[in-house]
Design brief:
The protein is of the alpha/beta class. The protein has 18 helices and 18 strands. The longest helix is centred in the N-terminal third of the chain and has 19 residues.
């Protein structure tokens, strides 16, 4: 058996302590999956706002209390607290960084009232990154690899190489940098660079900073030992498609031998209709009629009638352009003329939220809209809907389609990124969903109408599509082994 590795998994959000999207779920489940393979993975993340420390079993660590860190000419105190994330047969230790200057607000990246990014996000995540490296010596536990995630942690590889390179305790630690979405970059004025303590030579070494601005993501892509993205297709797309490389084409080309795509997995202890603690009627692929009891209950909750031959179409998404909201806006009025019911859950840009609320007023007997982030309702939609929509402009990985496949909720998705790697078109023998190619409202609408027609007229085919999806295994087992293989290459 391959020897296990010590890995510090650094992330800006982790469920159940903080969450804005899929990164929080991944930061919870991937470390546990890696630990089940014999590694020791510990997580570190900021502690935002006031958490219920008793309920979450968060404890102080005496030797990591009231430490000091200098950032941007200011000295500020921080403490590290500890807890454990538990799965069914797995667990992972988490360190939570507590600080009153940078992380006392509940918002993770934005002010939760104004929905505007914090003006000092550069300092907040520089501070976090420096603290991560600073505590390693005090921890008396040395990772073989620091696994960084997204722009918020992207300065760690540069700091390790350029600032902490003489520290005997940490200088030989390797870094992996996972990009969950290349569009989010941490792009700041040059004054942000001056706060980092990085030598001036870094500015020229990295090169390509646009308009003289300092870009956290570009810096991470340049200095990390290995780079991963969250699906094979997305790793290919960001190198070959200029519209998806988000200004990073040159550094991606330079680092192409060090880039790999590893598909995210999902936690089947949480997202699985046979064990789901949130839903009323649990079921397997042999008990699909129980799925319709969940549908009946979901519709009843929103005072809509259950109709046997009328499909319930779901969407659980951020309401933003990249998730396909602009083609959704064009397609929805036409789609709602069909004999369908719909439920949409999400938050996002004001214009899309208003549009959906107006459509809800126009079609009160067909359309349910919940402008909210509601994890429990997401489970009920997966269990109760017949189909799920993901008309994404681009999709690095996507988790919703993998949840949907397990729940027998047929995904209708655009053929891009991780959606291409997980959804197989219904025309094939092992088909589990519906794909459309062009980012176009007409093609999207035609694909949805085709799915609705098959749902109504060909139940045998529909059940085959459902069963094909439910039979697949997108657990972390395979992906965790690939990460472990990457750690092996790095450290041998």
């Amino acid at each position: 058996m391959t020897k296990g590795y010590n890995v510090l998994f650094v992330t800006s959000e982790v469920f159940p302590y903080s969450k804005t999207g899929g990164l929080a779920d991944i930061s919870n489940s991937l470390p546990q999956a890696l630990n089940s393979l014999g590694n020791e993975v510990r997580i570190i993340s900021p502690k935002y706002g006031q958490l219920d420390e008793r309920r979450l079993q968060i404890h102080e660590i005496k030797r990591l209390k009231d430490l000091k860190m200098d950032v941007a000419g200011k000295s500020t105190k921080f403490s590290i607290k500890s807890s454990f994330i538990h799965g069914k047969n797995t667990k992972a230790q988490i360190y939570l960084l507590e600080n009153q200057d940078y992380f006392k607000n509940k918002g993770i990246y934005q002010n939760i009232k104004t929905k505007e990014d914090f003006s000092n996000n550069d300092e907040r995540f520089l501070f976090f990154s420096k603290c991560v490296l600073e505590i390693l010596e005090i921890l008396q536990w040395k990772p073989d690899v620091i696994h960084c995630n997204d722009w918020q942690t992207a300065l760690i590889p540069a700091l390790l190489r350029k600032v902490y390179h003489k520290n005997p305790h940490i200088k030989d630690i390797k870094t992996v940098f996972t990009v969950h979405n290349l569009a989010y970059q941490g792009d700041f004025p040059k004054s942000a660079f001056e706060k980092t303590g990085l030598p001036d030579s870094v500015w020229n070494e990295v090169g390509g900073y646009q308009k003289g601005r300092f870009n956290f993501l570009r810096t991470g892509l340049h200095y990390a030992d290995k780079i991963t993205t969250v699906s094979e297709k997305y790793a290919e797309e960001i190198r070959k498609d200029k519209s998806l490389s988000c200004g990073m084409g040159d550094v991606l080309e330079k680092r192409k031998r060090d880039i790999s795509g590893i598909l995210n997995g999902i936690d089947y202890n949480v997202w699985n209709p046979s064990v789901d603690k949130v839903i009323t009627y649990r079921y397997t692929y042999q008990e699909i009629p129980l799925k319709y009891e969940n549908k009946r209950e979901l519709l009843s909750k929103f005072n809509l009638p259950y109709k046997e031959n009328t499909p319930l179409i779901g969407m659980v998404s951020r309401l933003v352009e990249s998730k396909g909201m602009d083609i959704m806006v064009k397609a929805l009025p036409e789609l709602l003329k069909e004999d369908i019911q719909m439920i949409i859950l999400g938050t996002g840009e004001e214009e899309y939220q208003k549009f959906l609320m107006n459509m809800k007023k126009k079609y009160p007997n067909k359309l349910i809209v919940q402008i909210a982030f509601d994890e429990n309702l997401a489970h009920h939609i997966e269990a109760g809907a017949d189909m799920i929509l993901m008309p994404s402009k681009y999709e690095p990985c996507g988790l919703t389609q993998m949840y949907s496949l397990k729940y027998g909720t047929v995904p209708i998705v655009r053929n891009t990124g991780g959606l291409s790697d997980t959804v197989i078109d219904y025309k094939k023998a092992d088909g589990n969903g519906f794909l459309f190619n062009k980012f176009d409202a007409k093609e999207f609408l035609a694909t949805v109408k085709n799915a609705v027609s098959i749902y109504r007229k060909n139940k045998q085919k529909w059940y085959t599509i459902i069963r094909n999806g439910m039979a697949l295994d997108y657990s972390w087992k395979v992906s965790a082994a690939k990460y472990m293989n990457l750690y092996k290459k790095l450290t041998s």
